[in-house]
């Protein structure tokens, strides 16, 4: 922190260690929301798989919206190694930062899984037995990942990142139903969900296939983004929202700029 009590800012963004803390906290909350809502759904609606999935999807969509708002202005609210790597590919963040984000997100998701298990009185760690190994699951993950990245980077390209939290939440909520894999679209959450043998869990043997499919989806998304938005590199930095102080300053300056334009 600076002497005036504000977060350290480097190059217009909070310092890396602060961004990593935000990614850890956000990823932990994400895993807790996904796994905790699954446990609650199983308890409240036993034996009703469709209703359990609906409850989990709704809670995840709302929770993801809130979590991105929570940490987005600090770290960008990536919460996902694929998002971080693709952002680095377009120059939005450095490869060094992406390399630091990814393990932090994984550790955060594991911590969130342990927290969710513990909150509901289960063993802190219980390795999932939920097999999700099939070509259909892998295709679903690739499709979910492509769609997620297109949503995020299209909004950045057209400078509409203020709606990213609701758009990402809505997309992931929908992906629970329109993909065969329930739309993980995130290697970190796939690893975290291994540690909970509950509704949202995934067996360790299924995780490599999911991560491979997510990687393929990321590569396809990069190609489509370059095709759709050839100037994406100029807007990639907008995937990470500016620090709160910078946003506030822009808001204060906007009326003055407008009056000058009309003069």
Unreliable segments of 5+ consecutive residues = 1-6, 242-263
* Number of helical elements: 10
Helix content: 55-70%
Largest sheet: number of strands, sense, barrel closure: 2 strands, antiparallel
Helix/strand/pairing class, anyone?
Answer: mainly alpha
Averaged pLDDT: 88
State the separation between the terminal residues, measured CA to CA. Answer: 41 Å
Order of helices and strands: EEHHHHHHHHHH
Total separate domains: 1
What would you call the shape? Answer: globular
Based on the coordinates given, report the CATH architecture.
Answer: Up-down Bundle
Please count the beta strands (DSSP E, at least 2 residues each): 2
**Looking across the biggest beta sheet, what order are the strands in?**
1-2
CATH class: Mainly Alpha
The radius of gyration is: 19 Å
CATH superfamily: Glycerol uptake facilitator protein
| CATH-defined topology | Glycerol uptake facilitator protein
Q: Report the sheet-strand fraction.
A: under 5%
Explain what the structure shows:
This protein has helices at 16-44, 49-75, 81-89, 95-119, 135-157, 164-178, 187-193, 207-228, 232-235, 244-262, and strands spanning 9-10, 13-14. It has 263 residues and is mainly alpha-helical. It has one domain (15-247): Glycerol uptake facilitator protein (Up-down Bundle). A two-stranded antiparallel ribbon has the order 1-2. A hairpin with a 2-residue loop joins β1 and β2 (13-14). The longest helix has 29 residues, at 16-44. The radius of gyration is 19 Å and the shape is globular. The N and C termini lie far apart (41 Å). Mean pLDDT is 88; it is low at 1-6 and 242-263.
